[in-house]
Amino acid sequence: MRYPDYTETESGLQYKDLRKGDGPVPKIGDLVVVDWDGYTIGYYGRIFEARNKTKGGSFEVIPAFEEAIASMAIGGIRRVIVPPELGYPGNDFNNAGPRPTTFSGGRALDFVLKNQGLIDKTLLFDIELLKVISG
Asked: How far is residue 49 CA from its own chain's centroid?
């Protein structure tokens, strides 16, 4: 599905900048610090992770997350619509991040990802780029 007012990339990722950043843009090999929230927009818009919560850790991310962050500048907030093919490998959020930090968030996301053919697995993320650490 194509959403109006969103930019679509060749991969099918759609995004809209809610706030443009004014800092540096990450390069390949850099580490980034982000704050994010996630929604199962293909299933009643249920939130599975909220922003402004402590989320520690370092992890590999789903292809859509990496693509979305690659052209962001520090301070930017980007809303990203993720088609299933750019989402969690094997429909399992344990294979790559971002991962929900609460039991209920993990349960909601797992429910959507594991229901083969029954539920639209399209996801929405709001990502804020907080810091870039040169790799």
From this structure: 10
